[in-house]
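Could you show me some protein's one-letter sequence and the numbers that encode its backbone in two labelled lines?

___
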Amino acid sequence: MFNQGHYNEAIPYFQVATERNPNFAQAYFYLGRSMISLRRWRDAIPPLRTAHRLAPDAAKQEIFDVLLDAFFAVALDGSNRPAPSSRRPFQ
């Protein structure tokens, strides 16, 4: 499902995989990548952090890069910011 772009449908499968095997780094990684593909930046961070912690050294850089992208997206994405107040400061 993930490879066909059906990220929303893939998420429950990755969640079940992580529940059945809490040390399955690749499942956490693809869970996070699915969330990123759906612009669910904040939701992607915990599984990506877990994937980074569990992954073999050879995979850590790729996971770190994706995790860093999620952090930047949270910081830059206007939809994650609180709605602006209708009052202007110092009126």
